[in-house]
Amino acid sequence: MGKPQVALTRRTAVNNGCNQAHAAKIVLPVPLHRIAERLWSARLTRTIQETLRYIICWKMEIFLMTSVRVAGWAAAVALAVGAGALSAQTKDWKIDAAHSEADFSIKHMAISTVHGSFRGLSGTIHFDPADVAKSGVQATIDVSSVDTGVAPRDTDLKSPKFFDVAQFPTMTFKSTSVRKDGDHYNVTGDLTLHGVTKPVVLKLDEPGKSEPGMDGKSVHRGFSASTTINRKDFGLTWNGTLKSGDSVLGDDVKIELDIEAVQI
To answer: Taking Cα atoms as reference points, which of 189, 195, 147 lies closest to residue 171?
Structure first.
């Protein structure tokens, strides 16, 4: 009868096993508690009762420990999957020239606004919503694609008097930092135009959701940004003076970018 006495010395561990299983509301695969109740109601010696109780509750404790381990593994898997889903949001996008444009507007004779656009856009966007500081963009615009809707004016804009596309066929933008600012992002970068490079800050709207392409395979996403530059900062200084004393052209140029990009 040596082993039954050993069972009695482990009563605390046994009680812990049963109590933990009950407190955790563990649903056991075998109704061991019902077996225990029946054994307790049977006319068995106390030593035998304690021995059986030890065996039953020892099984409960093992089951409880196994359940905790499984729960831990499940939590680890969930964290891994969550981290994977988060990193999956970080994507590189290629600008789709067919569905993107850079629009600009400038005051004319101080009484109206002339609008124009560039259609020859190319470049890549790296967008990381989890850590926007790691985001960035590099873009190039074909200056010869300028279009104001008036052919003679477009020709004038391409001449040495303005953009001088023969010498400066492209303008580029390369971001140096990105940070969240309320409901938008401030994208700071270097704009090179007409052979001059100056820092510019783009106000980027919160990007919308991505959409599957018409081919059912590609993934598309839209990006919209805006800024205002002074054309004279980039060597575009030509102007005329009206009889009223007002300038023919304003100095500030408002720029709006509507970009559709395809996931790389």
So the answer is: 195
Total residue count of the chain as it appears in this document:
264
The total number of structural domains that make up the chain: 2
Tell me the pLDDT tens digit for each residue of 218-231. 999 999 999 999 99
For residue 242, is pLDDT > 50? Answer: yes
CB-based contact 132:179 (threshold 8 Å): yes
H helical segments located in 121-192? 151-158
CA distances from 194 to 4, 116, 131, 143, 208 (A): 95, 17, 33, 10, 33
Closest CA to 46 of 94, 108, 111, 1: 1
Q: Are 193 and 237 in contact (CB under 8 A)?
A: no
Residues 139 and 214 in one domain: yes
Quote the Cα angle for 28-30-34, to 5°: 95
**Is residue 171 domain-shared with residue 246, that is, in the same domain?**
yes
Residues 76, 153 within the same domain: no
Residues 73 and 102 in one domain: no
Give yes or no: residues 84 and 118 share one domain: no
- Of the chain, the percentage scoring pLDDT greater than 90 comes to 64
Q: How many CA atoms lie within 13 A of 140 on its CB side?
A: 7
